[in-house]
Amino acid sequence: MKTLIIGAGPVGLGCAKALAEAAVDYVQVEATDHVGGNWAHGVYTTAHIISSRKTTEYADHPMPRHWPAFPSAKQMCTYYNDYADTYELRQRIRFETRVTAMRPLERGWEVDFEAADTERFAAVVICNGHHWKRVYPEWAADFSGEVLHSKDYKRPEQLAGKRVLVVGGGNSGCDIAAEAARVASSTDWSLRQGVHFLPKTLFGVPTVELMRPWMPVGVQRAMLKLLTRITVGPYEGYGLPTPSHRLFEEHPTINTEIFRYLDHGKISVRPGVSSVDGDTVHFVDGASKAYDLVACGTGYAVSLPMLPEGMLEVRGKVAQLIGGMLIPGQRDVYVVGTTQPRYGLGPLVTPAAQLLARWIRLQEDLDLPLVEVLQAMGQKPPHTHLVDPHQALRQIRLARRTEPLIRRQANQMLARRSSRSSQSLGRDLFEGHRPRTTGGSPLEFQPRPPA
């Protein structure tokens, strides 16, 4: 049986290349008719990456050097199509094929497809992304005007001439607020809590590229706070709330364009929303205002609807995976790409996909589930979905070197279980006989009659 890869976005393509190079026979399915995932269908036409070109490209497939430091959505689509064609991945993709359910077998998985037959696979790699299941504020359903999630925002014309309220201080919310400031009749921006804003560039260099692998997180945090304070100034001067969390405890927003529109009075900052009455939005400070459109930059939920309900626990935004990709209690299933790298995804995809290929091969040799062995070695689920890419690369390299230890641990676990089984069998045999003594003759064991 083949391995199944679900999804042909940036992570799914990287996994396909790694499996092909490791001679793991696979087939890939994609629900849409194109590769590239969110960059092909889930971003606005004016979007550019917030991480730099160098921290977004695959480690083994550089972007063209003449491209800008922050490529556009169109360029990103070109890049992923070129990647699929260069490594001949496209011919192994079944487009417009959606997985509806999957069930574990003793070895492998049974998978149901929409409008197709059920098939069996030796293993399943899930790369369905985490930027597709929209999250809305609870009160959005009560708003009588137009409600638009950032995933459904495509072009500034959707905002033109309207009274717009943007909700959320993440990167998408920030971009939409800036675009609304140019074309809307009025733009308000609702923030429930403070956000850390970082410039895209410092000293003419993309900010993310200033971070070096040797820098501890505390050093990175202190350096960026100081430089942002110098270049932007205090957030309170723009009417923004002060962040109540430290930098990197939540995903920072990479945008300083917004400060120009705040300085020009094109955007009014509002606190969180308390309630909605028709097209009128009431805020927690007692103010209220009518709007034509509410743009929700309120993020996404991690969701894997193809898995049996309850199989994978997700706490908030954190999928409870072992080793970054293994589901506790399961074998031959791998979930890749649920985390959010702090700077850029590119450098992590190739080494992580290569580790995935090694683990698939390793699991073929192990009688025990790999996840069970890693848990016995002390591996625990993450406590955050945010990832320091430099630390993650070190962990991937360490995981590759520990493969002999994993095999030894698995053998020891099997030996202990075999020993316990032998001891248990011995006790059962002993307890299954009753001792009988006759006239000083040696003990004779008689089978215990059945109960």
Which tags fit this structure?
single chain; 451 residues; alpha/beta; 3 domains; 5-stranded parallel beta sheet; 10 helices; 30% helix; 21% strand
Which range does the strand content fall in?
A: 15-25%
Largest beta-sheet details: 5 strands, parallel
Could you say how many structural domains there are in total? 3
**How far apart are the termini?**
46 Å
CATH class label of the largest domain: Alpha Beta
- Discrete helix count: 10
The coarse silhouette is: globular
The mean pLDDT is 92
Q: How many beta-strand elements?
A: 28
The SS-based structural class is alpha/beta
Helix content: 25-40%
Radius of gyration: 27 Å
Question: Can you walk through the features of this model?
Answer:
This protein has 451 residues and is of the alpha/beta class. It folds into three domains: 3-132 and 301-401, 3-Layer(bba) Sandwich (FAD/NAD(P)-binding domain), CATH 3.50.50.60; 136-298, FAD/NAD(P)-binding domain, CATH 3.50.50.60; 406-447, no CATH class. The chain contains ten helices and 28 strands. The chain has a five-stranded parallel sheet, covered by helices on one side. Helix 7 (346-365) runs parallel beside helix 9 (389-401) and helix 8 packs across helix 10 (403-431). The longest helix is centred in the C-terminal third of the chain and has 29 residues, at 403-431. It starts with a strand and ends with a strand. Mean pLDDT is 92; it is low at 434-451.
